[in-house]
Amino acid sequence: MATRSAAPLASSRLARLAQAQRTLVASPEPEEHCELCSNPIPPEHRHLLEIETRDLKCACRPCSVLFDSDAAGAGKYKLVRERRLRLEDFAMSDVAWEELRIPVDMAFFFFSTPHERVVAFYPGAMGPTESQLELSSWKELEAANPILVGLEPDVEALLVNRARGARRQWIVPLDECYALVGLIRTRWRGFSGGKEVWQELDNFFETLDRRAKSATGRS
Q: What does the alpha-carbon distance between residue 60 and residue 35 come to, in Å, rounded to a whole number?
C-alpha cells in the first residue's frame, strides 16, 4: 500500500500540543506566546492553521476573534474550531474499515482544500503518515454517516480509534489530532510502544470523551 510522510511538524510543537492536552490546566505563568502579536498565552489556547503547509500557529483570544470568520484569513489561515462530538451509533464495520486501507488501528480524516479531497493520516513513532485513501470507500462511509458531510474543511477531522479492540469515533478539531500525534511520537518506546504510552493514550481518549458532546453518526 502506498503511504507517505506528512509535511513535517516541529517536534517541539508536537510535544507542546501533547503536553497541553494532558494537563488542560492553565499554569500561573504562561510559557507560550501568540505567534501573531507575541502576547503571552495560557497552555490551553486556540490555533490558526496555515492551510497550505498544515502548520499550526498559537493564537491569543483577541487574535482568535479577529480570525473567527472564513474571510479573515484571506484563504491562507483558518481558525481551528472547537467542536468535539463523540459519535454514537457510528456505521462502520470491520470490512468498511479495511476498505479504507489504513495499515494501523488509529487514524484521522479531513477534507484538504489544497488537495480538493479527503485525506487520511495515521500517527506513529516517526510522526503522521498519509495513507492513500480510496475515495469510493470514503463516500460509502459518508453516505452511511451523513454527519461527516458537515466536517469543516481543513480544521475538523474524523478521529477513529480501533486499537486493542476499541471501536470509537469522534469529530474533533485538527489540533486534537496533532496532539495525539505528538503524544505517540514523544512517548513511543520499542516495537509495541511500552506501557506508558498506552496509559497516556487511555487518558487522552478519556479526556476527549469528557470534553465531547454525544452525537449520532447517522444524523
A: 8
CA distance 22 to 200: 8
Residues with Cβ within 8 Å of 72's Cβ and at least 6 positions away in sequence, in order, are 66, 79
What is the pTM assigned to this prediction?
0.84
Q: With contact defined as beta carbons under 8 Å apart, do 5 and 123 qualify?
A: no
| Mean pLDDT of all residues in 9-29 | 50
Is the Cβ–Cβ distance between 153 and 113 less than 8 Å? yes
Give 193's DSSP letter: B
pLDDT at residue 13 greater than cutoff 80: no
Helix (H) or strand (E) holding 167, with range, is none
The grid cell for 73 is 484569513
Cell 484563504 locates to 75
How far apart, in whole angstroms, are the C-alpha atoms of residue 145 and residue 90? 7
Confidence of residue 74 (pLDDT cuts 50, 70, 90): low
Q: pLDDT at residue 180 above 90?
A: yes
Alpha carbon distance 49, 78 (integer Å)? 5
